[in-house]
Amino acid sequence: MENEETYRRATRHVEAKIGFYIHLAVYVGVNILLIIINLLTAPQYLWFRWPLIGWGIGIFFHGMSTFFFTGRKFKEIKDRMIEEEIKGESR
Fold first, then answer.
1. What is the pTM of this model?
2. CB within 8 A of 13, min separation 6: which ones?
3. First to last CA, the chain
4. Radius of gyration from C-alpha coordinates of the chain
5. Which residues contact residue 62 at a Cβ distance below 8 angstroms, ignoring those fewer than 6 apart?
C-alpha cells in the first residue's frame, strides 16, 4: 500500500516537472516571437518587455511551486499553521 502511495506521489511530481518545462518552452518561444515582431514593426518602443516580465513572474511562481514547495512541504506548512491557529483560539 505504501509503495503505491509513493509511486503516485512520484508520478505527480514528475508530471508537475514536465508541465513546468512545457510552460517554460512555450514562454521562451512566444517571447522570442514577440521580440521579433516588436523589433520589425515598432523598434522605437520596446513593448515586448511587458509580457516578458508579466509572464516571467508567472513562470517564477510555477517553478517555485514545482521545485521548492512540493506537496510534503505544503503539508508541513499547513499543519504548522493549523497548530498556530488552534493555539491562538485557545487564548
1. 0.73
2. 70, 71
3. 41
4. 20
5. 20, 23
